[in-house]
Amino acid sequence: MQKIAENGTKRDLNRETILKIAQEIFSKYGYKKTTLDDIANAVRKGKSSLYYYFKSKEDLFQAVIMKEVDLLGRELDKVVNRNSDPVDKLRDYILTKLTIFRSLANFYHALENDVAAIEFIEDIKHKYEQNEIRMIKRILIEGVRKNEFEIYDFNLAAIGITTAIKGLEMPLTAGSYGNINLERSVDIILKIMCYGIMKR
Fold first, then answer.
1. Does residue 200 form part of some domain?
2. Residue at a domain's end among 38, 54, 70
3. Could you list the residue range(s) of the whole structural domain that residue 185 is in?
4. Do 173 and 108 contact (CB within 8 A), yes or no?
5. pLDDT tens per residue, range 111-154
6. Buried b vs exposed e over 1-29: b needs ≥16 C-beta within 10 Å?
7. Separation between Cα atoms, residue 42 and residue 155, nearest integer Å
8. Longest dimension (CA), the chain
9. Are 94 and 103 in contact (CB under 8 A)?
10. Residues 175, 103: Cα–Cα separation, whole Å
11. Are 41 and 84 in the same domain?
């Protein structure tokens, strides 16, 4: 019985090692340019060893993407479930998302670039967007309950904020603003979101 458990643990460790290295290589070269030979060489195993854990390059890429999506989801859940002020929570949500996005090159490129043809990407995109709208809506509802926000259509407000954050992902994580201070940028954006741009 213990031998089976050890084999299971070793198999899990091998799979995680392959995923970690594949994540780095996909991130560096992109999905199209990366081959299973590249990953096998980096892992120092034969290509047949990869097939023991993953059916194909697409299957391996999907596992890498799911690992990144799960990491992002867990971190955002922590923010939403914190016992903090709703405005601070919204700020932390945006900051956490953009900070993690800077390190999740594969997920970001999968959402934006040449792998959109892969069917599972569309499913992941849809689930991810719906989940994000739900999380933002929770923060907004809490803000109204605590008399900090005034919102008449939670769904529309959540979609608007989610879309605004999505629009910031590229410039604040990989684009021309990729190296600027995220905290300061998020504070400026949150001020606009919460108070608008009109002079009072």
1. no
2. 54
3. 57-195
4. yes
5. 666 554 467 777 887 888 899 999 999 999 999 999 999 999 99
6. eeeeeeeeeeeeeeeeebbebbbebbbee
7. 46
8. 72
9. no
10. 14
11. no
